[in-house]
Amino acid sequence: MKISERLARGMTFSFEVFPPKNDQSLEPLLETLERLKVFRPDFVSVTYGAGGTNRGRSLEICRALVLGGTDPLAHLTAIGTGREEIRAIVKEYADAGVENILALRGDFPPGWEGTRGDFAHAGALTAFLRAEFGGLCIAVAGYPEKHLEAPAFESDIAHLRAKQDAGASFITLQLCHDVDAYVRYRDRIRRAGVRLPVIAGIMPVLAREGIIKMTLANGCSIPAELAAILGAYARPDQAEDLKKAGMAYTAAQMRRFIAEGIDGIHIFTLNRWEAVSEIVALSGLRAHVMP
Ligand code: FAD
Asked: What is the CATH number of the domain that holds 174?
């Protein structure tokens, strides 16, 4: 089913997973998907290795999701890829029963020596997909604290609007720990004429170094409340306390996004079903399900 159709019915709840490297077993991820299935996600998104490095694995996971009765959202990056190749990849996904694609520009992997490809930006990829695969549900990325490379918020939002005009179906957001920043962003994009549903990206706070690295690498901020947790449990022997406080913080963030009327909650699971199950339970979002 198309995610746009689910969004038209009400708030969605979903997970993101990443496929293992080509030389690693799929089993742990398949178990993760099975464990997360108890929460009846509206869809599960599957990331795409930078430059399409483990593309085959992404397709395999999408196939497994379709067979198991969960709708996948397949991430797809354009960088270094030509029109013909994109057409063939999306056809393969469509043949596997995938109806939802997240159209991304992508980033050059370190040491990349190939060409830029035929699509300089996600907007161009979106327009191509809409023209070639009319019935596809196309998600695009949004950045509540601005994309790292964008010189100004105005141009970044204008490019988001261009993705809508190119035929995007909904927006899925970069991680954002600062709900106030999200609210300001939402108001700005609405003023700029962006009408698409918006799904929040929830990055679980589980480990000190990991969350700091990931947040800063994406040019996002650490609000005072989260900084206080990271400061209070800074020693290595406090890792478990940090995780506990971080999970409670993440669950509270989900509730805050919902209170602000978000169209969907999308958890970046990091393939950690146990911690994610606890967070979902703490949030009360799927209160009837015992993890
Ligand atoms: P774009 O929308 O093209 O924007 C990139 C930059 O170019 C922005 O600064 C924008 O303002 C600017 N821009 C856009 N259009 C134009 C234009 N016409 N002219 C001039 N400037 C323009 N990466 C992966 O490799 N694999 C993944 O699976 C993956 N999943 C992701 C999931 C989510 C939810 C998000 C938010 C990101 C994900 N990424 C992934 C990372 C993504 O590839 C990078 O953030 C990338 O730098 C930008 O991709 P984009 O689609 O947002 O690009």
From this structure: 3.20.20.220
User: d(Cα 226, Cα 250) in Å, to the nearest integer?
Assistant: 10
Q: Which residues line ligand 1 (CB under 6 A)?
A: 47-48, 50, 75, 77, 104-107, 121-123, 141, 147, 149-150, 155-156, 159, 172, 174, 201
Q: Is residue 128 part of a domain?
A: yes
Q: Which atom of ligand 1 is nearest to the CA of 75?
A: 28
Two tokens, residue 164: 């809508």
Domain count, the chain: 1
What value does the mean pLDDT take over residues 86-92? Answer: 97
Q: Is residue 215 part of a domain?
A: no
92 given a catalytic annotation: no
- For residue 21, give both structure tokens: 């490297």
pLDDT category of residue 135 using cuts at 50, 70 and 90: very high
Give residue-wise pLDDT tens across range 201-224: 999 999 999 999 999 999 999 999
Residue whose CA lies nearest to ligand 1 atom number 52: 141
Strand partners, 72: 44
Question: Taking the mean position of all CA atoms in its chain, how far away is CA 111?
Answer: 25
Nearest CA to ligand 1 atom 46: 106
Query: What's the pTM value of the predicted model, to 2 decimals?
Result: 0.97
